[in-house]
Design goal:
Number of helices: 3
Order of helices and strands: EEEEEEEHEEEEEEEEHEHEE
Distance between the termini: 47 Å
CATH architecture of the largest domain: Beta Barrel
Oligomer: single chain
Radius of gyration: 31 Å
CATH class of the largest domain: Mainly Beta
Strand content: over 45%
Largest sheet: 8 strands, antiparallel, barrel
CATH topology of the largest domain: Porin
Number of strands: 18
Length: 328
């Protein structure tokens, strides 16, 4: 929640634009030969600033700039007039403000945040073109609309900073007339990479020291096995603790062993529930390898509930990423 700034750059791909008319001749209609302008791959730059509301929605005002050189003009009967350079063939530039509404899908993954966006604004289109004896190098304004699909990848070491990548579709709708040459709709497809920085983001608390289980007095009754973030595989230290628990179970008269899995609060509750079960299953399988009868083990997953260290939501806490072995 709060203010942020963003920037992005990438490649812009333009669909061919229809030439609606040249002078008094109307084209691209029934009974007339089609005329279209084709473009080279161009570049795109975007600068923006906005506000995130904390519920997934955010608004952003963007200034965008696109440039594409003209590669050719298709003429009557399919003939193509090719241009070797922009001075001869021309170019099309677009720039303007585009207010945009975004929605961020938090909780999908702890590593990235997908987002979608829609925008509506005013675009200035500068056309440099020489075709059919008519040349122009001027600008016209038109309505523009865009749709965006992308993902942000937070940089954990720099709170508030994210790397972004997205696909952007921009349509400049309506006819534009330049010195008696009229062009139709302009459709743009872009792929970008950028950065976004949210002001006021606080760094996460320093990680707690990796806990080391103290030797339990004989006969042992409870053992704790800890896990790395978002992992269910066993470390060497974890296997040693499980081996001690298996050996300790032979020194007491037990009826069953409870193997209870837990997670911290980072990620979604549904994901954490499944992760806690996988951790408990990994510990139970190791106990069986160490000689504990499978029938004596009860496996449960409690997700992010019952933390050892109480925290808020979306907090990585090493002491909460655990499996507890209880010998009854």
């Amino acid at each position: 929640m709060g203010w942020y700034i963003s920037g992005a750059a990438g490649l812009n791909f333009m669909q061919q634009e229809p030439i609606r008319s040249i002078g008094n001749v109307t084209t691209n209609t029934t009974g007339n030969n089609n005329l279209n302008v084709k473009f080279n791959v161009g570049g795109l730059g975007v600068l923006g600033g906005g506000y995130a509301f904390g519920n997934g929605f955010r608004t952003e005002f963007q200034f965008n700039y696109r440039y594409n050189g003209i590669s050719s003009v298709t003429g009557p009967r399919g003939n193509t007039v090719a241009f070797n350079n922009n001075n001869n063939g021309g170019s099309e530039q677009k720039y303007g403000l585009m207010p945009t509404l975004y929605y961020d899908f938090y909780g999908v993954s702890p590593s990235f945040v997908p987002y979608v966006g829609v925008g509506l604004g005013y675009q200035i289109v500068r056309e440099k073109l020489n075709v059919g004896g008519f040349s122009t190098n001027t600008t016209r304004g038109a309505l523009g609309t865009q749709a965006i699909f992308g993902a942000a990848f937070p940089i954990e070491s720099v709170p508030g900073l994210s790397i972004t990548t997205d696909y952007r579709f921009l349509a400049v709708v309506g006819n534009r007339t330049y010195n008696r040459v009229t062009l139709g709709n302009s459709y743009n497809h872009a792929i970008t990479i950028g950065v976004r920085y949210a002001f006021g983001a606080t760094p996460p608390p320093p990680p707690a020291p990796v806990p080391v289980a103290a030797p339990a007095p004989a006969p042992a009754r409870s053992y704790l096995v800890f896990f790395d973030w978002d992992k269910a595989n066993l470390t060497d230290r974890a296997r040693q603790i499980i081996s001690d628990a298996a050996a300790g179970s032979t020194r007491v008269q037990y009826t069953r062993l409870e193997v209870n899995g837990y997670t911290d609060t980072s990620g979604t509750a549904k994901y954490n529930q499944a992760l806690s079960v996988r951790r408990a299953q990994a510990v139970a399988a190791e106990l069986v390898k160490d000689g504990v009868p499978k029938s004596a083990i009860a496996i449960q997953g409690f997700g992010e509930t019952n933390p050892l260290v109480p925290t808020g939501a979306n907090v990585r806490e090493p002491q909460n990423r655990r499996v507890e072995i209880i010998i009854h």
